[in-house]
Design brief:
Length: 281
């Protein structure tokens, strides 16, 4: 795996040479092309200059800032290098805080940090010290011409750099038309709590998969086998909003359904366990 960025982690007088690596992969997707409807001719997009409508090759394209309408100043790679601030090549840790103090809304994208040559000992020291203290390092770092707020966290044997939003990038929920005063009865609340308890379980991410991509792939295969003919209209799957007067009834039905699914799940696991024991014998 190639490093996206190389620099160092800095805290106090300690500097740890590190490389930055993506901690996520792109989700599965069904790649669709744009085509002209009448003959399915693929559509291409061109980079066209506004001045003369001529296509512009990549080697003639540069970045520029529009400081007035129609007036630009070119920004070169050398200009980006001249913006010399500490976070340009450094994960500059400003302070250490308790992770639970940070609202999850601030977190954006995770990356792995791995030590470069000569950085193993200091890397291990920071990782293990953060684990023991239960802290994360709040840092600033420049990636792809933009400065980010970030958190340095221990994650197993790795250090994780999680990019964060600056406070002014978050939308205040007060801007939304949210209900303020609770007018719920005790019965409704008790049943809601029971439903949550019944539906509670252990976090097992492997249980979840992208069902939409699977369904869309199946539909495409069916259409290919049918020579492109339209498939029959699907029955719409959706949920209706719950009216206040129906809330108790809906909670009761949800509770029954959830309890039934939980019993069914236990029964399936028990049968599978017995089958394994019988096979082993």
């Amino acid at each position: 795996m190639r490093a996206i960025w190389k620099g160092s982690i800095s805290f106090g007088l300690v500097n740890i040479p590190v490389g930055l690596y993506s901690a996520t992969r792109a989700g599965k997707d069904v790649k669709l092309r744009m085509v002209r409807a009448e003959d399915q001719s693929p559509i291409r997009y061109k980079r066209v200059a506004e001045a003369d409508e001529k296509e512009v090759p990549w080697d003639q394209i540069s970045k520029a800032y529009e400081y007035e309408k129609g007036h630009f100043i070119t920004i070169t790679e050398q200009d980006f290098e001249r913006v010399n601030i500490k976070s340009n090549q450094t994960v500059d840790i400003k302070e250490f805080v308790d992770l639970k103090e940070i609202d999850p809304m601030y977190f954006d994208a995770p990356y792995y940090l791995a030590p470069e040559k000569g950085g193993d000992k200091a890397y291990t020291l920071l990782r293990d010290a953060l684990k023991k203290a239960g802290k994360v390092g709040v840092a600033k770092v420049v990636i792809k011409t933009r400065e980010h707020l970030a958190a340095v966290k221990p994650c197993g044997h790795a250090l994780l750099l999680e990019l964060m939003h600056f406070p002014d990038e978050l939308v205040d929920s007060d801007e939304l038309p949210l209900p303020r005063n609770s007018e719920l009865g005790k019965k409704e609340m008790d049943m809601a709590e029971s439903l949550i308890e019944t539906m509670s379980g252990k976090w097992e991410p492997e249980k979840y998969k992208d069902e939409y991509v699977e369904a869309l792939t199946n539909l495409i295969e069916e259409k290919i086998e049918a020579g492109g003919k339209e498939a029959p209209a699907a029955r719409k799957v959706g949920t209706k909003s719950t009216k206040v007067i129906d809330l108790v009834t809906v909670l009761q039905e949800s509770l029954k359904q959830s309890q039934g699914e939980k019993k069914k799940g236990k029964s399936v696991r028990k049968s599978a366990h017995h089958a394994q024991q019988k096979k082993a014998a």
